[in-house]
Amino acid sequence: MGFLDGIIKSTVRQVVRETVGQAAREAVRDVTKNAIQKATGLDVDGGGDGRPLPSRDGRDGAPRDAAAASGGYAGQGSPAAPGGHTVEYFREILASEFGGYELRENVSPGEIGGVGRPYDFGLYQGGRLVAVVPLAAHNRTNNAAWKNARAAAEGAGVPFVNFHLHMPNQRDFVISRVKRLLG
Length: 183
What we know:
This protein is an alpha+beta fold. The protein has helices at 2-40, 66-69, 87-97, 144-155, 171-182, and strands at 102-107, 119-125, 128-133, 135-136, 163-164. The strands form 2 sheets. The protein has a 3-stranded antiparallel sheet with strand order 1-2-3, with helices on one face. It has a two-stranded parallel sheet with strand order 4-5.
């Protein structure tokens, strides 16, 4: 029995060592991933592309719509996502309901002396930026790029209202929030 006990103990030690080692590697990977994502705003949570999250203008290959940006949500009203609205949905509302403003897309915070992720929409009046409307995929507002863009708008006195793409965002709700923003 001594020989068999030795083999069992050795095997158990090896399994424990490998299991603990794997758990430690996964914990370090998760902490590192979260720190990088929070600091840079890069999508490093398994998508594998490492592209910046905020750009939806198509110039860098980043997603243009809610389905791509929010991890596979389908179109408006999809059972997979209560909201599932696309950038086009918001573009149509802003363009049709706020015709007294010039609507621009992918507005850089640099226009108001800031840094951070681009605002999906900017409303202009007389060539001056008077409001910004960024869109966010689920759980993507707690990173440095987002916080910097928000701080830039607040610092410049430019009203800021965001919408989460996975939320219902009924047309009347979007209109009333933007109207309230514009005063």
